[in-house]
Amino acid sequence: MRSLYNSTVAMSIALIVTHALCADTASSQNYELAKPTAKQLRFADWEVGGFIHYGLNVYTGQEHGDGREPASKFNPTELDAEQWVIVAKSMGARYCCLTARHEGGFCLWPSKTTDYTIANSPYMDGKGDIVRDFVAACRKHGLHPALYLTASHDAHAALQSQSGKIAWGAEREKAVAKALSDKSRKVAFKKVQLGQLRELLTNYGPIAFMWSDHWDATDPDGVWRAATDLAAELQPEMVFMGPETWVPGNETGHVVYPMWNAVSTVDGTNYSRPAAGATDFSVKNNYGLLETDVRRGDPFGKFWRVRECTTNSGFHYGGWFWHPDNLKKTYPRSTWEHIDLYYRTVGLGANTIINLPPDSRGLIPDDFVVAAKALGDEIRNRFSSPIAKLDEVVRDDTVELKWETPTSINTVVTMENIANGQRIAKYTLEAYVDDQWIPMVPKNKLIGWAPYNSNPMYETIGHKKIDRVRPVVTNRIRFRCLESIAGTAELRSLAVYHCDPIKRNYASAYPYLSGVDTTIESAHNGVRRDNNYIGKQIVIGGKPFEHGLLVCPVAVSKTGHADFDLSEFPKAKGIKATIGIEDHVQRNGSAVFLVQVGKNVEPTEDDWETIFKSPTMRGRDPGKEIHVVFPTDAQHVRLLTTDAGNGVHSDHSVWADARFVE
């Protein structure tokens, strides 16, 4: 036994290390695992980043930018880059990333490669440099400066000679391919991209991280290898998104779990994206978005990629850029949803980069300022004062943590020593109670849908795993590795906490189901409560409703659902609701509505029984009133909506005034 002293909690901590051989899944314990570089380790420790999506799109209403809107439209009146950084820091961000040039091609610095820059805008009479001001603000306030540049998507450089609007997606990619089929134009395009990358990585001092959107997106223009090599040459200590980090397969702030940071790649080199494993998939598209590649990683992969979760719709409604009251009205989600976002990203071993879009003034709006600080306060309140903590590297398969006074704990934070690779594939946590070791029961409920785990158990750890457990009074816990990759487990840290439960706040109140908690929910852009898709009143077939659940089918599964535990509502005998497609989509949209029940305490996906199925409901149809009676042995109820064949327009499916009948 060794004794350690933790100055943070001012108590002695006994570390008992015993050896219990883990079941190795590798053929040899001497297998050489992929390991992160020093800069990848630093980046993983930053955990939370701020993402500043700002540019010409704010003033044109576009989301991706077509490269044709005049630079003269860019005219912020109160721009303050320092405010952006202060807001990000209040949220707990350690780094902050600015869209120096987004996909439309408009540059927030006076680039010499193009006239499509702020030098030709009214802002500061053409003498401004927002990149310079942003980087300076980051350094002033202790955040690591990061920049966004996507060298394969530059609509202005590729399409400036084209006439008429070209829609984002397949239409644009076809137009770009045609334009760059001319060899001289292709050479000129590449020159612009590398020239802009050189300016950003030469003129502003050390840059900590670069978000290289669409990296290795089939590389039809021969840009990405050259850009990757140039970035490594100019800023060798900079983390470059693509060869050193990877996105998780969505923009909603979800990381697949279990998750391995090591990856195999499609061509066996570090110049390409991760290869798919047996349980992975990609949503096909014509423009190579990385966000559609869901990858669990390969424990025996050759290359290390830090996961970084993008959180557009995970943190707020609307697009990446701020938009006023229109189809993409931009406003933040609730604090409890932001806490869930933290648990399902950082708490599962990934970084999270949270979008904070400035408005047309050039300032992050007040509601985002409040929301960002509230999340930062929650993180600090929960994790700044551990009850006990081991804070040194221990190489063993059983690690015990002991403190003086028994107290109630409900959270265990484990960090693996990933400097030597990621090994742990399965583990358990136990507490010493009444002279015996008992399992700690995980209570890791998260917002999620397949393939994203809404109830992660004890599998991978990687950089960090935050486990919420059923409260237990103890002064002694232990971690036990049950399965490992290539040898004995290595822990970097083990800590216990008692955290407040997540308090989910809704606008309405029981008996309306929009006012009570779900056990699990899954919907595109999240289940919306008491508002339509753009934050206004719900209207179905011309009739307004004050309450309702908007349960949008998810693109991958083509379903959406909200589940309720009937043990919390013992008098509930059935459900009443008005179902339909909200009028916001006019005559578009089609969905089928189902009520299902589960008869087990913890129902699996095979346990659900359908007790009601609607006909296909379409946009502008009158709402259909339903009254469904539950069987007497029902323990759970699920409100399920399915895409009935009209694609994205089906995500306006509403259970209006849904309530239990007692």
TrEMBL record:
SMART domains: Alpha_L_fucos (SM00812), NPCBM (SM00776). This is alpha-L-fucosidase. Keywords: Glycosidase, Hydrolase, Signal. Belongs to the glycosyl hydrolase 29 family. It comes from Aporhodopirellula rubra. GO terms for molecular function: alpha-L-fucosidase activity. The lineage of its organism: Bacteria, Pseudomonadati, Planctomycetota, Planctomycetia, Pirellulales. One of its GO terms (cellular component) is lysosome. It is an enzyme of class 3 (hydrolase).
